[in-house]
Amino acid sequence: METNQQEPIKRSEFLRSLGLSSAALMAFYCMGTLTSCSKGSDDPDPTPTPTGKVDFTIDLNSSTYADLKDATKKFVYKDDVLIAQIKNGTYVALAKICTHEGNLVTYRPTVDNFYCPNHGSEYDSTGKVTVPVVANQASLKKYSTTLTGTSLRVFEA
Ligand code: FES
């Protein structure tokens, strides 16, 4: 008795029936979902998750942070944080990513504010948006700072 049911065919048999070589078959396998071609441990993660709270200390005398003493800049980046020495001499640490579309925020010593050159958002030293470019634009996260000698600790309270 003959049935209309067809035997399921394995993917490899199907691909071989197309006349593909072993190398081409491996390429197909690697493009698929087989675990034998899974990512290695040192492949970069395209969406890394934050590893923890911000808590680091910088040496203000280090040449790495010399821009903090440059009168035309007065700010540096460390990890995801912008650190600035504002007009009154205190150090302020804010998230460095603009809350509009993610551009890098800078500090402008001439007008003593934080500015995103991409579309012109401005923030004060608390991270509050003073010139938004969209309604309900979020503030920049502010971090705590403590200065001990020439060591500046930046941390989440
Ligand atoms: S990305 Fe900063 S103002 Fe648009």
Automatic annotation (TrEMBL):
GO MF entry, a single one: 2 iron, 2 sulfur cluster binding
Family annotation (Gene3D superfamilies): Rieske [2Fe-2S] iron-sulphur domain
Xref: Pfam families: Rieske (PF00355)
Organism superkingdom: Bacteria
Rieske domain boundaries: 60-154
CDD domains: Rieske (cd03467)
InterPro entries linked to this entry: Rieske_2Fe-2S (IPR017941), Rieske_2Fe-2S_sf (IPR036922)
Record key words, sorted: 2Fe-2S, Iron, Iron-sulfur, Metal-binding
Name the record gives this protein: Rieske (2Fe-2S) protein
Lineage, broadest ranks: Bacteria, Pseudomonadati, Bacteroidota, Cytophagia, Cytophagales
